[in-house]
């Protein structure tokens, strides 16, 4: 039997949450032809921000990576909603843009982003290998430590 995205999620004990609704005048995702763009996803767990504050200050690198993984889980929830529940329609994750709320002297945003990248490659397999940008910012909505948007190709 071929391993599926859902079976890999289940093996890690992960159940995708309900996709978060837009919090303002935007949509959570846009599907255009064979592309799917998600809006930025925060590290929500149970509807609340799981990791808040600035990485390199009160938030450790490891907690930043944990926040990035929560963002990635929420990205998959948005993809699932956009694809009528069928994550197997994902052809490839093309790009992640990772925003890290960080102290001015913190320069390891790329390592924070690994929390999402590593997880998505584990779950999506080879089609999870992606291009990426990791950017340090002074603040994010709701004082979240990380926010990530994704661009997928739909098979």
In short:
The chain has 3 helices and 7 strands; from the N terminus they run H-E-E-E-E-H-E-H-E-E.
Please identify the top-level CATH class.
Alpha Beta
Spatial separation of the terminal alpha carbons? 21 Å
- Based on DSSP secondary structure assignment, what is the total number of beta strands? 7
Q: Name the beta content range.
A: 25-35%
Largest sheet: 5 strands, mixed
Low-confidence stretches: none
Rounded to the nearest angstrom, the radius of gyration is 15 Å
Describe this structure in words.
This protein is of the alpha+beta class and 155 residues long. The protein has one domain (35-154): RutC-like (60s Ribosomal Protein L30, Chain: A), CATH 3.30.1330. Helix content is 29%, strand content 26%. It has helices spanning 5-11, 61-82, 109-124; strands spanning 29-32, 35-38, 44-45, 48-49, 90-101, 131-137, 146-154. The protein has a five-stranded mixed β-sheet with strand order 1-2-7-5-6, with helices on one face. Strands 3-4 form a two-stranded antiparallel ribbon. A hairpin with a 2-residue loop joins strand 3 and strand 4 (48-49). Helix 2 packs across helix 3 (109-124). The longest helix has 22 residues, at 61-82. It is globular.
Give a topology summary:
Blueprint: H1 5-11, E1 29-32, E2 35-38, E3 44-45, E4 48-49, H2 61-82, E5 90-101, H3 109-124, E6 131-137, E7 146-154
Parallel strand pairs: 5-6
Antiparallel strand pairs: 1-2, 2-7, 3-4, 5-7
Organism: Aureimonas populi
Protein name: RidA family protein
Domain Endoribonuclease L-PSP/chorismate mutase-like: 7-146
């Amino acid at each position: 039997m071929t391993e599926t995205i859902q079976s890999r999620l289940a093996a890690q004990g992960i159940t995708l949450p309900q996709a978060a609704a837009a919090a303002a005048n935007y949509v959570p995702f846009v599907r255009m032809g064979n592309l799917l763009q998600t809006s930025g996803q925060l590290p929500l767990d149970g509807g609340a921000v799981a990791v808040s504050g600035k990485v390199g200050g009160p938030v450790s690198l490891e907690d930043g990576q944990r926040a990035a993984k929560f963002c990635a889980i929420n990205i998959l929830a948005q993809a699932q909603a956009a694809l009528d529940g069928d994550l197997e329609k994902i052809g490839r994750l093309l790009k992640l843009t990772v925003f890290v709320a960080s102290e001015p002297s913190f320069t390891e945003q790329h390592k924070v982003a690994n929390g999402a990248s590593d997880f998505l490659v584990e779950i999506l397999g080879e089609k999870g290998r992606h291009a990426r940008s990791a950017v340090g910012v002074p603040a994010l909505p709701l004082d979240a430590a990380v926010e990530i948007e994704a661009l997928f190709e739909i098979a």
